[in-house]
UniProtKB/TrEMBL annotation:
Recorded coiled-coil stretches: none
UniProt GO molecular function: glycosyltransferase activity
SUPFAM superfamilies (alphabetical): PRTase-like
UniProt keyword terms in alphabetical order: Glycosyltransferase, Transferase
Organism: Nocardiopsis changdeensis
CDD domains: PRTases_typeI
Top-level division of the source organism's lineage: Bacteria
Name of the protein described by the UniProt record: Phosphoribosyltransferase
Length: 190
């Protein structure tokens, strides 16, 4: 199943995962920035970042006051960098590595083979834009939002490159008061 959103020209597709474990999703969303089908020209990264930033500012004008972009390991690295470059905001990355650093926030990516994720240097009172490559069930972002709030941080919004609408994650995330901006939506036809 493929989707190309006309407004953005961004391509994504759902493919079966050949290595899905018992607790993992049986499919994976591939997209135009993941480098799986072909090498990604730098302009595609900067264009996607601009589209995300413009869409986010339109939907949530207060996004310009965020303290940082927080990308999720590992798929969220590319959109976090793209959004950081477009917005001029610094970025942080959450990793599936536990180390003794201050400001640690632990959350769970429930459908992953390695579910424990850690963001470091999270400061109470600071606000974050959350970035991931795909949103499917919304569970990871919900867990992250709750963990950040428990630490006293303020998640403002979430952005993703591809939103799989089959699982209705948008409503789960937005029930927490977190707007979701995506470059393309895929999954309605399943």
């Amino acid at each position: 199943m493929e989707a190309v959103t006309e407004e953005t020209g961004f391509h994504a597709e759902i493919v079966p995962r050949l290595d899905a474990g018992p607790g993992s999703r049986p499919e994976r969303v591939l997209h135009a920035l993941d480098g799986t089908r072909s090498a990604v020209p730098p302009a595609r990264l900067t264009d996607a970042g601009q589209l995300l930033w413009e869409s986010l500012r339109h939907r949530l004008p207060s996004a310009v006051r965020a303290d940082a972009v927080l990308g999720l390991d590992a798929g969220g690295i590319v959109p976090a960098l793209a959004l950081s470059l477009a917005s001029g905001l610094p970025y942080k990355l959450a990793w599936k590595v536990r180390v003794p650093l201050p400001g640690a926030v632990h959350f769970v990516e429930g459908h992953a083979n390695r579910p424990n994720v850690f963001a470091y240097g999270i400061t109470p009172g600071q606000s974050y834009l959350l970035a991931d490559d795909e949103v499917t069930t919304g569970v990871t972002l919900v867990n992250l939002v709750q963990a950040l709030r428990a630490q006293g941080a303020h998640p403002l919004a979430a952005v993703c490159l591809a939103e799989d609408t089959w699982y209705n994650a948008r409503s789960v995330i937005e029930e927490l008061g977190i707007p979701l901006v995506s470059l393309t939506r895929i999954g309605q036809e399943r």
